[in-house]
Amino acid sequence: MRIDSIAAGGEGVGRLPDGRVTFVHRTAPGDLAEVALVERKDRWTRGRLLRVIEPSLERREAPCAFYERCGGCTLEHMTYDAQLRAKSRIVADALTRIGGLAVDAPEVVPSPNEHRYRNRVSFALRRTEHGRVLAGFHALGDPDEIVDLDGGCLLFEEPIARVWDGIRRNWGPDARRLPSGQQLRLTLRASSTGQVSLLVEGGFARGRPKELIDVVPGLVSVYHRPGEAVPDLIAGAPGLPETWGDETVELSGAAFLQVNRAAAALLEQHVMSVIGDAAGLRVVDAYCGIGLHARRLARAGASVTGIELDPDAVAEARRSAPDGAVFVTAPVEDVLADHLPADLVILNPPRAGIAAEAAEVLAANPAARIVYISCNPATLARDLKRMGEAYSLESIRSFDLFPQTAHVETVVSLTHNRA
């Protein structure tokens, strides 16, 4: 099979002689590959790569030692330029096929760091019945298997690599210094100064996390969340001080920031450039998180309302908010209409995109402009279609915040079609 392109999930795409599309991980556009079909549907199939007969010029040897089995990355076998081209096509295909928009493939701004870029990493931990502890990422194509990873993984920043190795060396037999439970989720977050916090999700008894902080240099706090409750600090310093561009913030256990600080800076600069002169604007910053955009725009003279569901994020947003920035704790779709009309609406939702009700509100009560920051081209395209003909696409640019994966961040600017 000849591979033609890369799908949104990172699989190579080819076709059978009968025309059915086939998805095959670890292939690159241009490869001639021998493939074993492992799943067959009426309109598509899924294959497993057996061997590459003729390698594409876009292929390389994956530099990470864990890549063969690990599902954390999907594109590391491709050159970095080829990854960027693939992501550009993924965005254009989604906007055309799902959104019904006639767009050219957008520019994808490369990440300043191809490896060692993640400041936040989550690992799955499993205690086996034989006393062994496995902790790492899920295997490619097998979510029940955990690939045991140390700090040699090339995804995360150096401070996380050092602290992760220190935790693994010092968690004790059966990882008894961590909270109990057969399966846990461990999230490490590094600040710009190299301090690292650990959030443990799952389990019940809290273990002995203070002992970990005492013996692992760089680990400054441990949080625990046994269920859906707010994470509870169980050892170390409350909050993780972080400098993010021109903002100084303090992050709790689960607060959101982009995982690629260098690429995020380029994206945020672009957003502010697209907005232009903010003085006097009425702005709604929806899904605002800790309020970085809201605070910057308020300092530039705008009147900004930030809307965010997470109360901890709102508390941090309010902590050092300048005059002109106020924050509301609520689902965006419940309160958005209360804050329209506006000169500008910023949308920065999670991967699921905006709720259908929010799209309907924006179509019925249009803002003069919308800047939509998306981490999922499919839901971005869906949401643009939901807003119908109320807006025109002004600009689009993508940013590679997630090298070695098929994920891509996209910034779209829309203007209202005034009657």
Your description of this structure?
The chain is an alpha/beta fold and 419 residues long. It has three domains: 1-59, Nucleic acid-binding proteins (OB fold (Dihydrolipoamide Acetyltransferase, E2P)); 120-251, OB fold (Dihydrolipoamide Acetyltransferase, E2P) (Beta Barrel); 260-416, Vaccinia Virus protein VP39 (Rossmann fold, 3-Layer(aba) Sandwich). Helices cover 22% and strands 32% of the residues. The strands form four sheets. It has an eight-stranded mixed β-sheet, sandwiched between helices. The protein has a seven-stranded mixed β-sheet with strand order 9-8-7-10-11-12-13. β1 and β2 (12-15) form a beta hairpin. The radius of gyration is 23 Å and the shape is globular. The mean pLDDT is 94.
| Count of alpha/pi helices | 9
Give the termini separation.
52 Å
Indicate the radius of gyration in whole angstroms: 23 Å
Number of domains: 3
Q: Give the overall form.
A: globular
Tell me the β content: 25-35%
What is the average of the pLDDT values?
Answer: 94
| Parts with pLDDT < 50 across at least 5 consecutive residues | none
CATH topology grouping of the largest domain: Rossmann fold
| The CATH fourth-level homologous superfamily of the largest domain | Vaccinia Virus protein VP39
Largest beta-sheet characterization:
8 strands, mixed
Q: How many beta-strand runs?
A: 22
Helix % is 10-25%
CATH architecture of the largest domain: 3-Layer(aba) Sandwich
Strand order, sheet with most strands: 6-21-22-20-19-16-17-18
Structural class: alpha/beta
